Amino acid sequence: MLPAMAWVPGVSRRLVTMIAAGVLLVLVPLGYLLLQAPNRQLELQEHAYEKWISRFAAGLGGRPAVVILEPDALALLNNCRGNAQQQARLLMLSYAVKALQTNDDQVYLDAGHADWVPAGQMADRLRAADIAQAFGFALNVSNYDPTGGEIRYATELDRDLGMAKRFVIDTSRNGAGKARGPADPAAVSARRVLPGASRGALGSQLYTDPHALAAEWVRAHPGDPRAQEIQERIANQPTAQWFGPWNANIAAAVSHYTIAASRQRKVPVLVAYDIPRSGCGGTSPGNTGLWCNLPGRQLGPAPRVLDSRGDMALWIKPPGESDGNCGVGAGTRAGEFSPVIATELITGKP
User: Fold this and answer.
1) CB 3.0-4.6 Å disulfide test: which of 47, 183, 209, 274 passes with 177?
2) Percent of residues in the chain assigned helix, strand, coil, to nearest 5
3) What average pLDDT does the chain have?
4) Does residue 3 have a pLDDT over 50?
5) Domain with 136 in it: what CATH number?
6) Within a domain: 323
7) C-alpha span between 341 and 209 (Å, rounded)
8) Which residue segment(s) compose the domain that 98 sits in?
């Protein structure tokens, strides 16, 4: 009769064949298991994300669209635990660029903002994520940095990339300049930075969603004294629509939105926001008091063309939609429309 456990002579750290209750168990080295578990998890994450992106692309259906790809993903790369996690994130972003960038669609890979990652370092990350195959990069998403500073950062990125890529800047709430500094005149009017800047045809080309949260709030509160101004200053402007894990059927959700835009012969702005954040952190660094529903902020330039190349100011973070239960959005959920936040952005006053 065999003993319950037999050790292989000379192998001190290896579990070997064991027979117990008639069942043969083959156990592999513990170190091998510990190594393979996270690798397998990364593989599953990559596969799930590629599947999500493929469905997102299917939803676009060849209809023209502007896609902002994964805000914060590159800026937070250092938050990823270890090189394997970082490389997995870069591979996922590269896959998304290749899957979404077509002759019809313009994909802008998010590059944080001027006060976050030095231009040379961000350029390396953009290259690793295949920025060469994307239409360009996005800056200042959901942030407050002035337009002029972001234009200068974009110029630095082009220099360090060694290629001229187009860019978009989120101007939805940067009209009062930096959160801890004086207003930049460029944040009030892009024309003061770039003589050739003008609204051009962009305002009439981009899709304004009649079912955006701001528009829905106005319809639900016709007697509210704030409703008319919110309608004129926010609801009538084209803003981005965000898509992420909250969309049960991403292909159907994207398809529904882009079809609605195409019926009006407009170009929608969509945000793809579903890259796995496990092991990499999920939000901007630092104290929430530096970015979360700050008081005294103001609407920046309405969506427009910034220069002769076609670089754009867009409202990627829909004005009035909360960052969460913080700042002037106390008592709100992330993504909820708040007339308090909206009114402060319109007036620039708490």
Assistant:
1) 183
2) 40, 15, 45
3) 86
4) no
5) 3.20.20
6) no
7) 20
8) 46-317
